[in-house]
Design a protein that fits this description.
Order of helices and strands: HEEEEHHHEEEHHEHEHEHHHHHH
Structural class: alpha+beta
Cofactor: heme
Bound molecules: protoporphyrin IX containing FE
Number of strands: 10
Enzyme class: oxidoreductase
Oligomer: single chain
Pathway: Alkaloid biosynthesis
Keywords: Alkaloid metabolism, Heme, Hydrogen peroxide, Iron, Metal-binding, Oxidoreductase, Peroxidase
Largest sheet: 10 strands, antiparallel
Shape: globular
Helix content: 25-40%
GO biological process, one term: hydrogen peroxide catabolic process
Strand content: 5-15%
């Protein structure tokens, strides 16, 4: 009940987030709490006169309405989310000292799924990767996994990310998306061949998931797990859907609701059909990572490649279930902030350059999108069994400003520290330097994964649909040179694929990429390339 306590310290009672708020037993007031007779009552001078500036009720109503929108996410703007819980079923304490990985540990979670390129009102059935973010509210702080539904990504040089994303958004000249104007979409991809693995997934049957319940999640980035002795391993994280996976074809997507995935998730949870996922890890020692680079030219810091699962089998750690819809979408899903640098002791980032950039970019956008005190919002606030203390103060909307505690490291009123038990920052010095050099360089190995998809994973029907999806999408690409270049990249994957695309598009592509210049410089292939003789 909203009753003043009379205590001077209890000043914000009405604005404490009340997720169960109902309209019964409330009183209509202005935002400063004064009772007001009716919401529809503008004050005017006389019967037909102008409005009154003194009418705070109307001025406040309109000016708050004017400010209802916060900036939408620059990517992943359209999304759906829910709450649930995670439980560790198979402890990982041998590899990580993270509290959440110890036997029997569990914690509440919030998950947000999304498409990537479209605006907040865009179609759920876009051919686009899907975001899959999980906030684990552990006893040692919030740990966020900000993942996608595909194990690889379009790039390995973070400086390309804003350029790449611009080509997925509306063309600044035509204001059309790539569904109607695909020239810049293919211009970017055909200039940056390391995108090919992700392109093969995007344009194939896995390109349009049939709702968020029916997809897996993959971090893609290599992480590090550190145990209580300070030993560390590299790690890949997977979320495996217990519902299995389901996809829809391009043709079928046209008949779906723009909110297909939102509806599916919301009503499944509402009806008690709670979706769940297994949490699994692949792990690798530093020595194995060096051998993987030396023998198979797979760099663990390059998220355009996957870790072979036969060599590095998946190991189940736990599972999570979504069993509660948001009571208020804006407060609990729009304002939730997932961030790859929200880590907890025992889970560390690797030197992957794209991950390293993300560690900066997300909290930076959160300060702008939600505000500098975004961590204080109820959905983002840590729920730890100790009283948190730090020296961050003030700023817009500082609801929890840490009272009268000193705002510096005081000797008069000291705070306590947990002793550092292990060195969490041990790096893999020699390897880091050797493995990542010129990030745009294309190597023959970049085509192994895509080739395996074409030759071993896609059946005849999948191949046909793939060629139809690519050629259909290229139909409104106005520059033949771009198509020729992209077919050259597809030819590095498979002659068969490139030949089929030449037939479907009516454009004769380049015979491969060795003689092509990308982004104005030649970075076609590394010198030891075993390129096709034809080039
Ligand atoms: C959202 C940047 C790569 C997954 C975002 C946002 C930014 C961003 C600024 C908006 C966040 C917000 O407003 O809350 C970047 C940059 C990248 C990158 C700079 C590379 C240099 C990736 C990769 C993945 C990924 C590789 C997946 C493995 C996501 C997801 C979201 C997101 C799932 C939505 C989070 C949510 O639901 O709130 N990214 N991103 N991003 N990104 Fe990235």
């Amino acid at each position: 009940q909203h009753v003043a306590s009379g205590k001077s310290g209890d000043m914000s009672r009405n604005y404490i987030e009340d997720r169960a708020a109902k309209s019964q037993d409330t009183l209509y007031t202005t935002s400063n709490g004064a009772p007001y007779p009716h919401p529809y009552e503008a004050q005017r001078a006389g019967t037909n006169g102008p409005l009154l500036l003194q009418d705070f009720h109307l001025v406040d109503l309109l000016s708050h309405f004017d400010r209802e929108r916060i900036p939408e996410r620059v990517v992943h703007a359209k999304g759906s989310g829910a709450h649930g819980f995670y439980k560790t079923t198979n402890p990982l304490d041998d590899l990580s000292c993270a509290d959440i990985f110890q036997a029997g540990k569990e914690c509440p979670i919030t998950v947000r799924f999304s498409t990537v390129g479209g605006e907040s009102g865009s179609h759920d059935c876009a051919r686009d990767p899907r975001g899959f973010s999980v906030k684990f509210r552990t006893d040692e702080g919030n740990w966020d996994v900000v993942a996608n539904n595909t194990p690889v990504f379009f790039l390995r040089d973070p400086a390309k990310f804003p350029h790449f994303i611009h080509t997925q958004k509306r063309n600044p000249a035509t204001h059309l998306t790539h569904a109607d104007d695909s020239t810049v979409f293919w211009d970017y991809l055909s200039q940056n061949p390391e995108s090919i693995h992700q392109v093969m997934i995007l344009m194939g049957d896995r390109g349009i998931p049939d709702g968020y319940r029916f997809m897996h999640g993959y971090y893609g980035h290599t992480m590090k797990l550190v145990n209580k002795s300070g030993e560390w391993v590299y790690c890949q994280m997977h979320f495996k859907s217990k519902q299995g996976t389901k996809f829809i074809t391009q043709a079928d997507s046209a008949s779906k609701s723009p909110d297909h995935s939102q509806k599916d998730l919301f009503f499944a949870i509402e009806n008690g059909d709670f979706p769940s996922w297994d949490v699994e890890v692949q792990t690798m020692t530093a020595k194995e990572a060096e051998e993987l680079w030396e023998k198979q030219k797979i760099n663990v810091f390059d998220l355009t490649h996957v870790w072979p699962q036969k060599q590095f089998p998946r190991r189940k750690v736990g599972e999570f279930t979504l069993n509660e819809n948001a009571k208020n979408y804006f407060a609990e899903i729009e304002q939730v902030t997932f961030n790859p640098s929200h880590l907890v002791p025992g889970i560390e980032p690797s030197a992957d350059p794209v991950l390293q950039s993300r560690l900066f970019s997300y909290p930076d956008t959160h300060r702008h999108r939600v505000g500098p005190n975004y961590q204080q919002l109820p959905v983002n606030a840590p729920r730890v069994p100790y009283r948190m203390a730090n020296f961050q103060r003030d700023g817009a909307m500082s609801f929890y400003n840490q009272g009268s505690r000193p705002n510096y490291l005081s000797s008069i009123e000291p705070i306590s520290f947990r002793n550092r038990t292990v060195d969490l920052n041990k790096t893999h010095g020699s390897f880091t330097g050797d493995a990542v050099t010129f990030l745009s360089e294309i190597r023959p190995e970049d085509f192994n994964g895509p080739r395996a998809l074409w030759e071993k994973v896609f059946d005849d029907g999948a191949k046909e649909r793939f060629v139809g999806n690519v050629s259909g999408h290229m139909a409104n690409c106005t520059d033949k040179e771009i198509i020729k270049r992209q077919i050259g990249i597809f030819r590095e994957v498979s002659d068969d694929l490139a030949t089929r695309l030449e037939k479907a598009t009516g454009v004769k592509g380049y015979p491969g990429i060795a003689n092509l210049k990308f982004n104005g410089t030649h970075n076609g292939m590394a010198s030891d390339s075993s390129l096709r003789a034809a080039n």
